[in-house]
Automatic annotation (TrEMBL):
The chain crosses the membrane at residues 29-46. The lineage of its organism: Bacteria, Bacillati, Actinomycetota, Actinomycetes, Kitasatosporales. Residues 10-21 have a biased composition (Basic and acidic residues). This is Polysaccharide deacetylase family protein. Pfam families: Polysacc_deac_1. It comes from Streptomyces flavofungini. It comes from the Bacteria. Residues 141-323 form the NodB homology domain.
Amino acid sequence: MRLVRQNEQCGHEGGRGERRGWRGRRGRGRVAALAVSAAVVATAIASGCAADGDERGGAGAHGQQPQLGPPAQALRDYADALRAQQAARAAAAKRWGLASAPLAAPPAPAVKPRITTRKGFEVEGQAQLPPVFTTVPTKDKVVFLTVDDGAEKDPAFLRMMSDLKLPYTAFLSDYLVKEDYGYFKRMQKRGVVLNNHTLNHRYLPGLSYEGQRREICGMQDVIQKRYGKRPELFRPPYGNYNRDTLRAAKSCGVKAVPLWASEGFARHMEWREWDKDLHPGDIILTHFRGREDWKGTMPDMVRTVLKTVTAKGYAVARLEDYL
Ligand SMILES: [Zn+2]
């Protein structure tokens, strides 16, 4: 495993994030300098490059053990923790049959990108409505995993994602979720945000404004009641929507409408873009499905998606960190 950076290289210019952080925080004292140095050490360790000798606490220039002040000790602890994390992740990858360990996502962006509706996806009056998009604008080499509907409730999927420390976001439809609200409660307790995919998974453009409101706002109410939090994200079933859909969603608290750029199945990927490739910030759709639906298990799907994502040099990041 290694941290994913644009233009990854050895040394203090190891990544865009560090450079920006260094310039932004220069002169704010030891704590800021420590944070920057920690990032440098993290990048160096993760990329296999050597960090500064004194920061790593090696033998001094004259063969003496250097005295470690609090900042150096903190750095050493941080480096140890990072190595332990990497080892744990590699072991988890092996346990779950992954050819290689997933890449670790860079830190969440300090400033969230401004989300706009994808060209060609607008409705009339779009500027006043929640944005519809398939890719998050970012230069980080990350993609986002989103899992829809809720049919398959495989405990192994929860274990696998926790074990691999892979973030994902769920878009739930009540007619499936209500078979076992507890499964998704356990998911939420593991840090997954539960979002809105309507009550009954209807084709929304075929419904009146009021009908759409019942489907979308009804699911807002269910998630709030069952899970204590009103979703900010909504995804229309099949990705189909019209102006009434976005008006209805806005009226019950939806802030954004993420669609997807590619889709993961148990044994293959499908692509929206002509180049059949991943791009920084792409949202990947997949589903809670099992053997009856796609001749494989949820863990098979995760392996298939990760094989592509990791081979192409991307990390899976947390969608909510960017929205
Ligand atoms: Zn769906």
